[in-house]
Amino acid sequence: MLNLDETIENIKLCKHIPEEDVEELCTKVIELLIEEANIQHVDTPVTICGDIHGQLHDLLTLFKTGGECPQTQYLFLGDFVDRGFYSLESFLLLMSLKVRYPDRITLIRGNHESRQITTVYGFYDECVRKYGSVNVWRYCCEVFDYLSLGAIVGGKGGVFCIHGGLSPDIDSIDQIRILDRKQEVPHEGGMCDLLWSDPEDVSGWAISPRGAGFLFGENEVKNFLRINDISLIARAHQLVMEGYKEMFDQGLVTVWSAPNYCYRCGNIASVLTIDDNLNRDYKVFEAATQDVSAIPSKKPAVEYFI
Amino acid sequence: MNIAYKTTIALMLSPQEKKDKIIRSTDIDALSCRYSSNRLSYFFPADPYTEILVQSYQKNLQYCQGYTGLSSGRLLRSSFGEKKFPLINRGTYFRTKAIDLIVDQFLKEFPSGQIVSLGGGSDTRAFRILHKYKHVSYFEIDFPESVKIKHLAILQSEELKNIIEYEGDDKVEINNKQEFENFQPCLHTPRYHLVSYDLRNLAHGSKDFVEQLQTFNPGLPTLLLSECVLCYMNPEENIGCLKYFKDICIDYLSVVIYEPISLGDTFGATMARNLSERGINLLTFNEFPDLKSKLKFLHDICGFQTVRLTDLSSIAGYGRRSEPHKESWVDVQEIYRINHIELIDEVEEIRLLLQHYCFCFAEWSPAQNQKHLVGIDRWNWLESLN
After folding, report:
1. In total, how many domains does chain A have?
2. Which of B270, B342, B348 is the closest to A260 by Cβ?
């Protein structure tokens, strides 16, 4: 039987979590997520976090920066896994907190919470390496399919939270509410775009260099804000060297929470707190440590052209 | 002395030998990137020769200085067995493509020109070029062990022997370190010369090196290629090497340099730290941190008359929008094909990474002769000086 508080402490220390415990945790978190809407309503105050990407030590710094859960309420915008060396531990920690304090933490889906992407970007390999089988990866992928697609913070006039951005197929948030989200992220269409698109200085919609989703411009953002009676789109998905970046007359913000992304990019990270009056407060933080414990002794994959 | 003790002694390298071993091993890294891109069909047409070089490493790396059967097996498994990230595959494609474009333009304007590749290791461009152009001479210069690996690869392949017009039919099989040590590195055919030499010595007055290049003709237009090679030499050695070739060429010399730059930012600082943890020191990284300082280096210090610079990010279409009258480096359809081989979720990262790799072209010819590679301005450059 899973002892949550003990498991949370073990995860923080990067200890091996038994496969049965992972299965039980995934089952419990699915029971919670299945009840959630495609667009979750979240009350203020809440602290919004961008991509984590398996950087467990930096996730721990994030909680020190923003305050521990449950004292601080959190909303994570997806991309918990891949790229970093501790994807599994990062995702297990977030799931454990979700099961332990269901009303104090909301997890929405990023484009990396997908079977296809995790086989390319490291989470699959990490699970197989740590457990010698694909079971744990499979349990986690089951969870991915139940994650909400987005959230609204603070109700009317509040903040629309999504991993990627807008879709030419979606004008109103109500259209998202009726999607059937419980599936692998499709290669195209509304659900795909919400997780893959990026804001850019373009007029209208443009092709995304990522090969999925779209680039969307200022007009699209302003229309979306107006139609849906919201004041801000908070999204993640794009590395921002300064940790966060507001665009389009502060109508959109990118929040990035993986400092020194991939142990390579030299960027700082941030979280965004929205208070009861919908004021924004950004807190920035740097990479946990140059401490060797953050990087396993095994040589990481080629990172540069040498 | 017992055998185990002897082996231990043989494996003990001096600090300089260790550094050089790491520099030579960057060739395995580069080869593994080409191998990965090629397997995923980034290159079109595919590169049929990379596989042959991989096999040569698989057979012979164990005999190289500082390796054992186990340690070489381990390095090769991790290099060629593990998947590369899409950004590495794409970057590898674009760097190769950009240099190919310059080489093609050079041989179009100077069909009897010659190409000298510095520290090209197991790169396969020589074979592709010799196969495609029947009048070019190609010279490759690298450390003895790297040259031996390539030489052995050629001897194993009828296809490569045909391409370089190798007449012999000797079969060489290396079975131990001693045989590898004794194996003669250099290989010469009328159009292809594989030469073992430590390029750092060019800065220290080895004036007669050119004799080792045998059929090298100082009177012919010459293109020098450095793909992540000069960056492992200190500034004096850089100058010494470039000036050496400028001094021996009496008609026309151009050089293509592709290598990392720090840009003086946090990405660059992190890169220097990460690489130095792997024992790799980029010796001009901070000295010439950006395109402007590279331009000054090539023009003011080395005396090249024409200099063009850009970065790999612009070449790959991640930079600022191109000037409309210029050709993009890679046409839109080709970029579309490349971008759809693998879904890429690292656009900002790839842009950042590729911005930190400069692509330089510089040329020199004596005043009375004023030769230029006219086609060089077909493409977009971020910095230029005539």
Report:
1. 1
2. B270
Is A261 an 8 Å CB contact of chain B?
yes
A248: left (phi > 0), else alpha (psi -120 to 50), else beta?
Answer: left
Write down the residue that tokens 């092709």 correspond to: A207
Residue at A93: amino acid letter: L
Query: Which residue does chain A place closest to B281, by CA atoms?
Result: A306
Per the structure block, which two tokens stand in for A53? Answer: 């990407």
ipTM, two decimals: 0.85
Whole domain around residue A182: which residue ranges? 10-289
What is the rounded CA–CA span in Å between residue B84 and residue B36?
A: 7
The rounded distance, in Å, linking the Cα atoms of A232 and A225 is 7
Q: Which CATH architecture has domain B86-385?
A: 3-Layer(aba) Sandwich (3.40)
- Among A189, A157, A188, which Cα is nearest to A176's? A189
Domains of chain B: which residue ranges?
3-81, 86-385
Bridge-based pairing state of the strands B383-385 and B306-311:
antiparallel
Check if B352 contacts A (Cβ < 8 Å).
Answer: yes
The model's pTM is 0.90
Sort out which chain B residues have CB atoms less than 8 A from A200's CB and list them: none
Contact partners, residue B326, CB within 8 Å, separation at least 6:
B377, B378, B379, B380
Shortest CB distance from B280 goes to which of A111, A240, A306?
A: A306
Residue A68 forms part of a structural domain: yes
| pLDDT tens-place values along chain A, 306 residues long | 789 999 999 999 999 999 999 999 999 999 999 999 999 999 999 999 999 999 999 999 999 999 999 999 999 999 999 999 999 999 999 999 999 999 999 999 999 999 999 998 999 999 999 999 999 999 999 999 999 999 999 999 999 999 999 999 999 999 999 999 999 999 999 999 999 999 999 999 998 888 899 999 999 999 999 999 999 999 999 999 999 999 999 999 999 999 999 988 999 999 999 999 999 999 999 997 655 555 555 555 448 888
**Is position A187 annotated as part of the catalytic site?**
no
Q: B347 and A210 in contact by Cβ < 8 A?
A: yes
Q: Which two tokens stand for residue B296?
A: 């000054």
Q: Distance of CA A48 to CAs A100, A153, A199, A262, B108, Å?
A: 19, 10, 18, 21, 57
Q: How far apart are CA B329 and CA B338, in angstroms?
A: 13
Contact flag B318-A117 (C-beta cutoff 8 Å): no
Euclidean distance between CA atoms A56 and B194, whole angstroms:
49
Say if A96 falls within a structural domain: yes
**Do B340 and A211 make contact, defined as CB atoms within 8 angstroms?**
yes
* Lookup: tokens for B381: 């450059």
CATH code: domain of residue A273: 3.60.21.10
